[in-house]
């Protein structure tokens, strides 16, 4: 590290610290590209602010510096880096929003009722115009029915609840988008809430602000306008990294002239060749150009183009890693364990990391997705917080850990069971030991044993309590309960009130769990590592803010089947549609614009070397088109046959 590099963007950091002066706060927008140390600037500015006179003032007044992060992981990281200082409140946007509106039960009820009425009216209008017997028509009717039932039920809710980190499925709970939309609306229309926020957090910093929900961002900007003499709104972001459609388009253009606009131009993360590539990707958007650190390596960049049809991705990606090992002279490319592979969506990762049979059925149920990506809920918890840690301890012959798990969560050794056993406690201990031995024998003798079989063994031995979600799959109970749920769901219309809605949900969820449990238990181990971010796989969108030495970007529109991003059009191998051309002509955002930004995000994660594998319907054409951009040299683009 050189002093000159460290000082390169020192002016931006000094400006931010000036803005956090509680006696004359000023808002600012730090605009800087990938790897420029935005998060680092945020943390160091806050640390300096709380270490000085401002920190004392915060302590005396009980006010806080608010920091909004994009993910729970970023939230934990920043809290840790600020040593859990009580004068700083670090939250995700969902948690922060809920902290503002929780308890406004009357207003929440009114808002939800009005919103439901509007949605129902819109559906009725569509129903009048549309055809009733199509799939869309039937879904519309069902959706109307569910909304009417929820509307009727609203009056009986005394207290609304919400969890920012899981699916909210009880009748009194609010969903994620409702909480965000409601916060934006309340913050705009309720003077008391506006004053309360400014008084609680005279400084509010938002990381990754380019992706903050646009209605909420407008509410914050509006709030800042009114209170700017005693409130500082600090935005950290990069418009080139706006990858969710939720964010405010042209946020940078909406910033008032009185704000400070610090800029950072050095990229501290990437080698110089990667910086040249990301500068080129960015060039046509805003022309912002980064410079590498003086001690940056040149690094390696390669694009490999493979045929989309009939491709064996495992063989191709292994060949690419081998090739990168030679080109980069870096043996760590050889193993997939030391390369971060970025796929376009989770199913692609699940296939590559070997947990697709477990993941796909549950992923197919929309309302389970948030919990699934967070490993939340009792059904998943049974395996990832109960069975698997125990299996790990038993495999490692770590008796201490195994006993701790059993004591903490097995009904066999619960306080009540031991008390009831009285003088017979030794027998109870032997029971627990036999149950553990049985589990270890099962997974050792049958490494591919299914989750279903493990579940049954656990139920028989009483090793862990079986949560409601999984109870129907325990022998004897399975057929009766699953069939009953399905029967009730079929009678849909005849089931009274809100219960009918639950039954329909239960039926599809049951059948998804039924399929997932047929997967081997070891797939759940892989799934668990993946969702905890501990595997070498991730998605293009999910790695925002992160960095890895070796990055392998996998692009396959066909496998991803997404509609928001379209690499084939972006790389010029698929013709643009009439709508694309019309959008382009009027300056409206197109799929190619979004794809370009996503590509910028993925490429800019690499600390040493970057490989891009592009599965194209027309490899030859793709190579010519990519070379035409001029981003990569002839020797950097290779065809794989
Ligand atoms: N002044 C500096 N000196 C040394 N290393 C730095 C400096 N600033 C940032 N870094 C390092 O550069 C990397 C990128 O920093 P950071 O993640 O804060 O950037 P960012 O702007 O938030 O990136 P992105 O927008 O791509 O997520 C980190 O490893 C960080 O430790």
UniProtKB/TrEMBL annotation:
Coiled coil: 106-133
UniProt key word ATP-binding: yes
Transmembrane segments: none
Keyword entries, A-Z: ATP-binding, Coiled coil, Helicase, Hydrolase, Nucleotide-binding
GO terms for biological process, alphabetical: recombinational repair
Any one GO molecular-function label of the UniProt entry: DNA binding
Organism domain of life: Bacteria
Protein biosynthesis among keywords: no
Domain UvrD-like helicase ATP-binding: residue ranges: 11-284
InterPro entries, per database record: DNA_helicase_UvrD/REP, P-loop_NTPase, UvrD-like_ATP-bd
Biased composition (Acidic residues): 498-507
Region listing for Disordered, in residue ranges: 481-508
Binding site for ATP: 32-39
The protein's name in its UniProt record: DNA 3'-5' helicase II
Lineage of origin: Bacteria, Pseudomonadati, Pseudomonadota, Betaproteobacteria, Burkholderiales
């Amino acid at each position: 590290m050189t002093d000159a590099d460290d000082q390169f963007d020192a002016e931006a950091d000094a400006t931010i610290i000036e803005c956090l002066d509680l006696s004359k706060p000023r808002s600012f927008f730090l605009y800087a590209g990938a790897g420029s140390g935005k998060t680092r600037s945020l943390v160091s500015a806050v640390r300096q602010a709380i270490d000085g006179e401002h920190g004392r003032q915060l302590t005396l007044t009980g006010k806080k510096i608010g920091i909004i992060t994009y993910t729970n992981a970023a939230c934990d990281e920043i809290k840790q880096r600020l040593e859990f200082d009580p004068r700083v409140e670090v939250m995700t946007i969902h948690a922060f929003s809920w902290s503002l509106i929780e308890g406004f039960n009357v207003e929440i009820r009114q808002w939800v009722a009005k919103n439901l009425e509007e949605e129902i009216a819109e559906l009725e209008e569509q129903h009048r115009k549309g055809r009733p017997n199509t799939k869309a028509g039937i879904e519309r009717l069902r959706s109307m029915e569910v909304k009417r039932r929820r509307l009727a039920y609203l009056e009986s809710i005394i207290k609304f609840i919400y969890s920012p980190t899981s699916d909210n499925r009880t009748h009194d709970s609010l969903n994620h988008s409702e909480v965000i939309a409601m916060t934006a609306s309340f913050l705009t229309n309720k003077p008391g809430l506006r004053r309360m926020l400014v008084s609680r957090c005279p400084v509010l910093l938002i990381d990754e602000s380019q992706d903050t929900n646009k209605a909420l961002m407008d509410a914050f900007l509006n709030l800042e306008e009114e209170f700017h003499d005693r409130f500082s709104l600090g935005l950290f972001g990069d418009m080139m990294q706006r990858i969710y459609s939720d964010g405010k388009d042209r946020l940078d253009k909406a910033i008032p002239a009185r704000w400070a606009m610090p800029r950072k131009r050095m990229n501290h993360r990437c080698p110089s060749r990667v910086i040249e590539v990301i500068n080129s990707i960015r060039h046509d958007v805003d022309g912002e150009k980064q410079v590498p650190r003086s001690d940056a390596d040149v690094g390696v960049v390669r694009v490999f183009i493979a045929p989309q049809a009939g491709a064996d991705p495992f063989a191709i990606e292994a060949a690419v890693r081998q090739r990168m090992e030679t080109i980069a002279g870096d043996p760590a490319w050889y193993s997939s364990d030391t390369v971060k592979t970025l796929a376009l969506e989770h199913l692609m990762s699940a296939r590559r990391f070997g947990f697709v049979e477990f993941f796909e059925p549950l992923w197919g149920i929309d309302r389970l997705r948030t919990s699934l990506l967070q490993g939340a809920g009792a059904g998943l918890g049974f395996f990832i917080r109960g069975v698997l840690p125990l299996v790990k301890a038993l495999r490692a012959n770590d008796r201490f850990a195994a006993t701790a798990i059993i004591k903490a969560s097995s009904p066999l050794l619960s306080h009540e069971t031991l008390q009831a056993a009285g003088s017979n406690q030794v027998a109870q201990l032997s029971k627990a030991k036999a149950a553990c031995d049985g589990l270890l024998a099962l997974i050792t003798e049958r490494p591919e044993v299914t989750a279903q079989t493990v579940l049954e063994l656990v139920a028989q031995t009483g090793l862990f309590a079986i949560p409601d979600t999984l109870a129907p799959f325990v022998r004897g109970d399975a057929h009766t309960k699953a069939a009953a749920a399905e029967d009730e769901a079929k009678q849909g219309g005849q089931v009274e009130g809100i219960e009918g809605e639950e039954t329909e949900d239960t039926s599809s969820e049951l059948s998804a769990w039924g399929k997932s449990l047929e997967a081997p238990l070891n797939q759940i181990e892989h799934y668990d590592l993946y969702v905890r971010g501990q595997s070498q796989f991730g998605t293009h969108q999910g790695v925002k803010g992160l960095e890895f030495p070796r990055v392998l970007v996998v692009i396959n529109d066909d496998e991803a089947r997404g509609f928001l991003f379209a690499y084939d059009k972006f790389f010029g191998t698929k013709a643009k549609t009439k709508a694309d051309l019309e959008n382009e002509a009027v300056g409206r955002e197109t799929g190619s614009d979004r794809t370009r930004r996503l590509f910028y995000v993925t490429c800019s994660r690499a600390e040493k070397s970057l490989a891009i594998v592009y599965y194209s319907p027309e490899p030859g054409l793709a190579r010519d088109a990519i070379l035409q951009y001029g981003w990569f040299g002839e020797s950097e683009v290779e065809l794989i046959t």
